[in-house]
Amino acid sequence: MKINDLPTELLTLILIKIPGKELCKSIVLTCKKWNKIINSESFWARKLLLESLASQKLITTLINFNCFEPRRLYFKNPYEKNLIRNPCAEFGYEYWHTRSFIMLKYSREVGSSDYYDFYNGLYLQNCFHDSLTQQEYWGFKIEPDDYLSRPAYDLEGNPFRYYATPYYNATKYQLIDLLSEGVDQKVMEKIKPKIIIEDWYAARTDFGAEYKIDVIFYDSQYKKLEWFEYSEKVPKGGDGKWKKFKKTIENYSKDVRYILFEHFGKDLEFIVGHYGTKLTNSSLKLLF
C-alpha cells in the first residue's frame, strides 16, 4: 500500500506531526492531495490546538467575528501572550531601551508626523537598543531576587530577577508594534480585545522610593491617541513587599498601531547607588 492510499483522515494525522515550516516549504508541493490537506483551514486549526499555540476560546472568538486565519495564527499568535519581552531580566537588558528622563508623552511634532524626544535627541520610531554600558550608565542594575526586599515569585515558585533604580529618574521602555507582532487590524476593529497592563514594583526596607508608569497609544503615523499614567511614593521603613499595578483598557481607538510601555523609579533619599524602586514582571496582553 502506498501512503496516498491511506484515508484522508489518517494522512492528516501523519502530516499534522510535521513542523509547520517544513509543511509550507516543501511538503505542500508533494502532490495535489497533500496540498489540499495542508492548505485547509481545519488542518491549521487542529495543528494550533495540538501544539497548544491557541486556545479553543480564542479560535471560537475569531471564527465568530470572521477573523480566523489559522495559518497566520500558527506562525505568529500575538493574543493571550505577553508582548513585553524580557520582563524579568532573564536576558539582562535585552529588548529594553533606557533613558534617564525620556518623558515621551510630552514630545512634540517635528517636520512631518514624527514624534521627537527632546531630552535625548531621538525620533520615537528610530530608538535603538542600548549597549550594556549605556544601560548601566542610565541608571539600572540587575540585583538578586531578595536583596533588601521580599522576593517575588512566579506561578511555579521561582523567584524573579529585577531591575533596581538609582537616586534620579531612571526610565526604561519598549515600543510595541502591533502589526509586526501579528495583530490583525480586523481584530482591533471588530473585536477590540482587552489590553491588560501589569507591572510589579517594590521599595527597599531601608529607603523610600517612587514608582511611575506611562502607557501611550499611537497610530501608524505616531500620532498620540490616548495615554494613562500612575505613580506612587513608597515611604521608608516599609515591609519590602512587591505591589502589582494592573490596568484593563477596553475603550481605545481602533487605529492603535504602536503601544509605548514606559516605567521608571528612583529613591527618595537622593543617595548615590541603586536604592530606588525595583521593577520586574511587566506584561502587556491582548485578551478576549
Q: Gist?
A:
By secondary structure, the protein is an alpha+beta fold. Helix content is 22%, strand content 29%. The termini are far apart.
User: Could you give the order of strands across the largest sheet?
Assistant: 1-7-12-9-10
Mean pLDDT: 83
Task: Write out the CATH superfamily name of the largest domain.
Answer: Galactose-binding domain-like
Helix and strand pattern: HHHHHHEEEEHEEEHHEEEEEE
Q: Indicate the proportion of strand residues.
A: 25-35%
Domain FBA: 73-288
InterPro entries: F-box-assoc_dom, F-box-like_dom_sf, F-box_dom, F-box_only, Galactose-bd-like_sf
GO cellular component, one term: SCF ubiquitin ligase complex
Domain F-box: 1-47
Helices, strands, pairings?
Blueprint: H1 8-15, H2 20-25, H3 32-38, H4 41-50, H5 56-64, H6 70-75, E1 97-99, E2 108-110, E3 114-117, E4 122-123, H7 132-137, E5 141-143, E6 162-164, E7 170-177, H8 178-181, H9 185-190, E8 194-202, E9 209-218, E10 224-234, E11 243-249, E12 258-267, E13 278-287
Antiparallel strand pairs: 1-7, 2-3, 3-4, 5-6, 6-13, 7-12, 8-11, 8-13, 9-10, 9-12
What features would you describe in this structure?
By secondary structure, this protein is an alpha+beta fold. It folds into 2 domains: 3-75, Monooxygenase (Up-down Bundle), CATH 1.20.1280; 97-287, Jelly Rolls (Sandwich). 22% of the residues lie in helices and 29% in strands. Strands 1-7-12-9-10 form a 5-stranded antiparallel sheet. It has a 5-stranded antiparallel sheet with strand order 5-6-13-8-11, with no helix packed on it. Strands 2-3-4 form a 3-stranded antiparallel sheet, with no helix packed on it. A hairpin with a 3-residue loop joins strand 2 and strand 3 (114-117). This is F-box domain-containing protein.
